[in-house]
Write a structure and sequence with these properties.
This protein is of the alpha/beta class and 383 residues long. The chain has two domains: 15-46 and 283-381, Aspartate Aminotransferase, domain 1 (Alpha-Beta Complex), CATH 3.90.1150; 49-280, Type I PLP-dependent aspartate aminotransferase-like (Major domain) (Aspartate Aminotransferase, domain 2), CATH 3.40.640.10. The chain is built from ten helices and 17 strands. The chain has helices spanning 36-39, 48-58, 71-81, 94-109, 126-130, 185-198, 268-280, 283-300, 329-338, 361-381; strands at residues 15-19, 22-25, 30-33, 86-91, 113-117, 148-151, 166-172, 174-175, 181-182, 201-205, 229-232, 243-248, 309-315, 318-323, 341-342, 344-346, 350-353. Strands 4-12-11-10-7-5-6 form a seven-stranded mixed beta sheet, sandwiched between helices.
């Protein structure tokens, strides 16, 4: 690639086609996909109903602007809030959704300070990057947004940092990029209670965990929480760029006309796709995801018997296989690619799995067995 900034370290093949949970590269090689485009294509690839929804919208209108009413936006927003007391602000990505959340929190509270967590990831634009707990990706881009502090995730001492001068606390239910670590239930509930006590808004980043990934529409539902603000993107339109910042209705007065906006936000193509995704993710679909996750975890736990596996973490179909230092995750990913399985990496030498939610249990098991075989070989050859 000669004309594109080298901001990504790319594998030396191109994906040219996909169907359901399988992808095909430019050499005709097929792969079992355990990545979903980094948690985006939760419904898999080339889905007829989704294709039809987008194709039909293409024949109507692609873009006008947000100067006019949009019944399609309102229908999607209704699906997102799912009967709860929330309003939706659309955008085009997860990082934009988190930017909107930070702006709303500061304006609504009249406070400046934000508490975030080490090893978190919220995006790469300045506000979102400022609340991301990874100094490595901030090199050369400082100074960051003022007023941001960090605490240890799942650490009771972090609760002491929730104070009355905070505008918000920004947290992930599962730290995806940070190693696929799920929040301890009692810790997260106490964090939410502390926020309410001091008047700080609780922002939950559901960009990777949302849209069915954990067996619930939103991961915070597993914990019985109702955040002040939550953010969505990735799986919301199954690959069509979209994001959403969702806030309690009581916050609506702080985001009036002219206070925030985005040219392409809520465009008809993205809304057509999102509407179909939300229609697909009914209670029956989510129950099936939860059942497949339970099935998969039964076999995933067996991986801990391997000498090179130090643990398996995550929630639902968001899975992290932690490897010992003797086995490098990058080498394992390449070995799996050669075997026709696509996987991801995360912090702490972690092999990360984000399979399409539509993948049958039999295919999930086939992927896990291939991982097991590659890891067993890795021990012998010292990958």
């Amino acid at each position: 690639m000669d004309y594109v900034f080298p901001t990504y370290k790319r594998f030396p093949f191109e994906i040219v086609a996909g169907s359901d949970w399988e992808l095909t590269d430019d050499q005709g090689k097929q792969y079992l996909d355990l990545t979903s485009g980094i948690g985006v294509c939760n419904l898999g690839y080339n889905q007829p109903k989704l294709n039809q929804a987008v194709a039909e919208q293409l024949t109507k209108v692609w873009h006008t602007s947000n100067l006019y009413e949009s019944s399609l936006q309102d229908q999607v927003a209704q699906g997102i809030v799912n009967g709860e007391d929330y309003l939706v602000s659309f955008c085009n990505s997860g990082t934009e959704a988190n930017e909107a959340a930070l702006k709303l929190a500061r304006k609504a509270t009249g406070r400046e300070k934000i508490l975030a967590f080490n090893h978190s990831f919220h995006g790469r634009t300045y506000g979102s990057l400022s609340v991301t707990g990874n100094d490595q990706i901030k090199v050369g881009f400082t100074p960051m947004l003022a007023g941001v502090s960090f605490a240890e995730y799942n650490d009771d001492q972090a609760l002491e940092q929730v104070s009355s001068d905070l505008a918000a606390v920004s947290v992930e239910v599962v730290q995806g990029e940070g190693g696929v670590y799920a929040a301890n239930a009692s810790w997260l509930k106490t964090l939410a209670a502390k926020c309410q006590q001091v008047g700080a808004l609780l922002i939950i980043d559901e960009v990777q965990t949302g849209m069915g990934r954990t067996g619930k529409l939103y991961a915070f539902e597993n914990y019985g929480l109702k955040p002040d603000i939550f953010t969505l993107a990735k799986g919301l339109a199954n690959g069509i760029p979209v994001g959403a910042m969702v806030g309690k209705k009581s916050l609506g007065k702080y985001f009036g006309p002219g206070s925030h906006g985005s040219t392409f936000a809520g465009n008809p193509l993205a809304m057509a796709a999102a509407k179909e995704v939300l229609a697909t993710m009914d209670s029956e679909f989510l129950e099936a995801v939860a059942a497949k996750a339970e099935f998969a975890w039964h076999y995933l736990e067996d991986l801990t018997a391997l000498e090179c596996v130090t643990g398996v973490t995550g929630l639902g179909l968001m899975i992290g296989i932690h490897l010992s230092s003797e086995v490098k995750v990058a080498a394992v990913i390449e070995k799996l690619q050669a075997a026709g399985v696509l996987t991801l990496a995360a912090r702490d030498n972690t092999l990360r799995l984000l399979p399409p939610l539509t993948m049958p249990a039999s295919e999930l098991l086939a992927g896990i067995e291939e991982i097991k075989a590659v890891l067993a070989e890795a021990i012998l050859v010292g990958v």
